[in-house]
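Regression check, adenosine-5'-triphosphate case 250:
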Amino acid sequence: MTPLLQLDSVNKAFGGLKVTQHLSFSVFPGEIAAIIGPNGAGKTTLFNQITGHLLPDSGRILFKGEDLVGLTTQAIVKKGLGRAFQVASIFPEETVLDNIRLAALANLDHTRRFWRPSAEHRQATEAAVAILASLGLEEQGGRLAFELSHGDQKLLDIGIALALQPTLLLLDEPTAGMSPEERQRTRRLIGEIRGEYDLTLVFIEHDMDMVFDIAHTVRVLQQGALLAEGSPAEIQSNEEVVKAYLGEEL
Ligand SMILES: Nc1ncnc2c1ncn2[C@@H]1O[C@H](COP(=O)(O)OP(=O)(O)OP(=O)(O)O)[C@@H](O)[C@H]1O
Ligand SMILES: [Mg+2]
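Current build output:
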């Protein structure tokens, strides 16, 4: 099987600080891949390079076999690579429905001119309503985004990403700052949307219960380098990983 995402010796430094070091790994279609590691290990910086927010110093990032390095964030999104951010990236003054609707509208193919704008609006609204329902936010559609709880704002950010119809979804700490109940709900919803939208997932997470519960594969980053990769069971019993990271988290 061809990997959906393949990193090939990716390197990045900020001045003297090496944040990505010879990073190579592959994610296959349907996989749920976790990326873990201490604060400052370079996890978010890695996502920034995959999504075109940052340019690697060297290496290749292949998505469906095509190198993404040098493409704009918009071009990368168009190829089917979506992302939700560590700090929810939403329009706080718009309604919850409009946050997703505007993303869905932007995603419509404007070269298909025979569509009247009203039809496009209707289509975007229908897509947004369906996504809200998938996330259990259907009752919140008319509220302004800033009024949502922290947990619901994180879900809304995932909803905006879904509106862009990704094949691969990157989630940066989807349960960060959530209460235990919100974490559980988010964990369940991520499993559900993966099935419903046929997604491959790569997620960064500090909540080890979630990592070992839902991930098929786990990569451990330390100072930008891959310390270990394997199944949840392999990672949990890896002495180096336990010493470097899990000892504190578990
Ligand atoms: N634009 C930047 N310029 C300079 N240094 C940066 C920049 N962005 C990140 N860094 C540094 O790169 C390192 C990796 O940061 P990154 O945000 O990727 O860590 P992380 O693994 O996501 O951590 P956390 O778990 O706390 O979110 C940190 O030392 C950070 O301070
Ligand atoms: Mg981070």
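Comparison notes: The mean pLDDT is 93. The first strand starts at residue 5 and ends at 14. No diff flagged against the previous build.
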